[in-house]
Amino acid sequence: MAFNYTxxxxxxxxxxxxxDLQLSLQQLGYSPGTADGIFGSRTRAAVMAFQTDNRLVADxxxxxxxxxxxxxxxxxxxxxYLKVGSKGPEVKQLQLDLTILGYQxxxADGIFGxxxxxxxxxxxxxxxxxADxxxxxxxxxxLEMAVNRPRITEGxxxxxxxxxxxPYVWGGESPAEGGFDxxxxxxxxxRQYGIQVPRVSQDQYKTGVPVDRSQLQPGDLVFFxxxxxxxxxxxxxxxxNGMFINASSxxxxxxxxxxNPYWSQRYAGARRVY
Length: 274
Description:
The chain is α+β, with helices and mostly antiparallel strands.
C-alpha cells in the first residue's frame, strides 16, 4: 500500500491521510499508536524514528522528502512474515541471530520448525512483545536492536556523555532548546538511534522489561522517586560501573554514582527498552 502524500502533516492535524500515515508506519515496524487519524505525540515519535533511520531531518513533520522515503520503504522493503513452515535464507539468518542472542532455534538450516518457533516465543516474551511465534515488523526490529545492542549502546553512552554540562531546562528535549529535563534527555538520546520511548518518565517506566539492579547493563534506564510519593518522577541512563547520566534539576546533565545516598535511597527500578 503506497502512502498518498497530499499535504504536509504534523502534530495536531487529523484526517484520512494521517490514518494512512499511521498504517504505513505500522507496516514498516514503527509504533505510531492507534491508527485513528489523529497526529499526536506517538505518531510524531514514530515519524522521527523513521526519519532518523533513513538519515532525514528528524523533525517529526511529514513533508515531500519523508513521504518519498516512506513510499520507497513500502515499495522496496515489504514486510516478510516468518512463521512455522517458512524456508530460505531469511529463516537461516533468523536462526543465526537467535543463536547469537542465547536462544536455541535448532540448527541454522533455513527451515522454520517448532524449535525455531519456541525460540522466537522466548525472545518475544523477554522483550515484552506478543508471544505468537511469528516474526513480523515489531519482532524483526527488536531482533535487529538486540543483535546490534553493543554498537547501539556504545553510541547511546557516547551521545549522553557529550551532553554533560548542558543546563537543566524544564521541557527541554534537544540541544537546540539549550538544555534538557530528565526524560527529555532520555527521549533525545534514544531517538538518535531510532529507539522510541515516551516523552515523560512515568510513561518511560512502563516501556520495555524490568531489570533487577544487580543485572543492570549500559543503556538501561534507571528510575527514581525523588519526592517520595510512591511514583516515578526522575530517570537516567545507566552508563556502567555503577554510574548513570541524568539531567539533574540542580546540576544539569551529569554522570554520577547510583551508590550516592541521595540516589540510592530514591531508586525505584530499571527498564531495558532495546
